[in-house]
Design goal:
CATH superfamily of the largest domain: Butyryl-CoA Dehydrogenase, subunit A, domain 3
Order of helices and strands: HHEEHHEEHHEEEEEEEEHEEHHHHHH
Number of helices: 13
Radius of gyration: 22 Å
Structural class: alpha+beta
Strand order of the largest sheet: 5-8-9-12
Number of strands: 14
């Protein structure tokens, strides 16, 4: 059993760090208002419903252009799309490494923006799209010419996705979609929304749901408002669909087989989300330990107190266990079908996301009033990673998936 990193990764991480220092750090320094204590306010366009300011997103676009030109952005994509065929293990290690650096333009998780891109929509398109759809969307989604929101959650249905009430009916050579979606992330700039609608079967049935590529300028597609969230700016829209008509070529994957498309999106995101949460947790642990060593209280370092030592020791131990679990799950994903190891991915996801919140909270406590301020990153990291315990499947759903495998419920079905 070998626990060392693949030979190419240490050198790769060093190259990546050099690129960040040369190309990204100076760009960040020129726009520091987006990363210091002003970050939430500088990023948010209050008058436009709380969505991200265009200037902020333009900066993210410039970062991605530089990363793409340097050969980093597409690292995890196949070589056919200009990528480097990065493995799930590669991506887990890289995502942890980048998040461990803390908040920065190199890796701003609030926007799922990173010098090494996470492209679950591209992977979905390559796996389920027709030749024509792949030609139209795959490269365009990497460069930003096309963008796709993800419309699964509804006002009355979240984790119970098979009970969604949005419907699509075939009318000649078109589908007519009616319903509503909630928390449609990124739809404010999206050219298309991937809408999941019931096309056959009964409520609660996994079969009978279809995925549709819906242009956001289609008549009947409206955004009444954006949800203001714990972490701002918001790009989580409420979407209404009233007699939205799309051609039969708008179906992604098989008719009635849309849940397979959704599962691919979720599994690709969950393991990388877990690695990012692990990296953020390690950042908080390390910052808290560093502060405790240097802070003198009652004539001695804060770190001399067991009340400070023990919680951080517990978190450091948990981080090491989660690291092994994340890499183990990623290793299996590189070898097995994602549904075969979904319980391992769920384990890694819910434990890592919870760890990030606990580590940020403890770092705040050790830093005292300064930790509670916006001049440290802990409040921002907490607010962002708290979201991960709900999105991509709430942690209760992740635990249920582990229980299904543990007790054999999935085999009985």
């Amino acid at each position: 059993m070998d626990f060392t990193l693949p030979d190419h990764l240490p050198g790769l991480l060093a190259e990546m760090d050099d690129f960040i220092e040369r190309e990204i750090a100076p760009l960040q320094a020129d726009h520091i208002q987006y990363f210091d204590h002003r970050r939430e306010f500088a990023r948010t366009d209050v008058e436009a419903g709380g969505i991200p300011r265009r200037e902020w997103e333009d900066l993210l676009d410039e970062m991605r252009r530089r990363a793409d030109a340097a050969g980093w952005l597409r690292y995890g994509l196949p070589s056919s799309l200009g990528g480097r065929d990065g493995t799930n293990v590669d991506m887990a290690v890289i995502r942890e490494h980048l998040a461990h650096k803390g908040l920065g333009l190199h890796n701003d998780l609030q926007d799922e923006s990173s010098i090494v891109g996470n492209f679950p929509q591209v992977i979905m398109m390559e796996r389920f799209g027709t030749d024509e759809q792949r030609r139209e969307f795959s490269q365009a989604m990497i460069t930003g010419e096309r963008s796709m929101a993800f419309g699964l959650t509804e006002p009355d249905h979240g984790s119970d996705a098979t009970w969604l009430e949005t419907t699509a009916e075939l009318d000649g050579d078109s589908w007519v979609i009616n319903g509503a979606k909630r928390f449609n992330t990124g739809v404010h700039r999206a050219t298309h929304d991937l809408i999941f609608a019931r096309t056959s079967g009964e409520a609660g049935s996994a079969r009978g749901i279809t995925a549709f590529l819906v242009p956001t300028d289609t008549p009947g597609f409206t955004i009444p408002y954006y949800w203001w969230t714990f972490n701002m700016p918001t790009d989580h829209a409420e979407v209404e669909l009233r007699d939205v008509r799309v051609p039969t070529t708008a179906v992604l994957g098989e008719v009635d087989g849309g849940l397979d498309v959704a599962q691919t999106f979720l599994h690709e995101n969950r393991i990388r989300q877990a690695a990012s949460s692990l990296g953020a947790a390690q950042y908080c642990i390390d910052r808290a330990a560093e502060y405790a060593r240097s802070r003198i209280v009652f004539g001695k370092p804060l770190s001399a107190n067991q009340a400070v030592q023990w919680p951080l020791a517990e978190l450091a131990t948990e981080a090491q266990m989660v690291r092994l679990l994340v890499n183990y799950a990623a290793w299996h994903l590189d070898r097995d079908h994602h549904l075969e190891v979904s319980d391992k991915v769920s384990m890694a996801n819910y434990r890592a996301n919870r760890l990030a919140c606990e580590a940020a909270d403890r770092a705040m406590q050790i830093h005292g009033g300064v930790g509670y301020s916006r001049h440290e990153q802990f409040e921002h990291l907490y607010r962002h990673h708290r979201r991960y315990r709900i999105t991509e499947g709430a942690e209760e759903i992740q635990i249920r998936r582990v229980a299904q495998r543990l007790f054999g419920f999935d085999r009985k079905r």
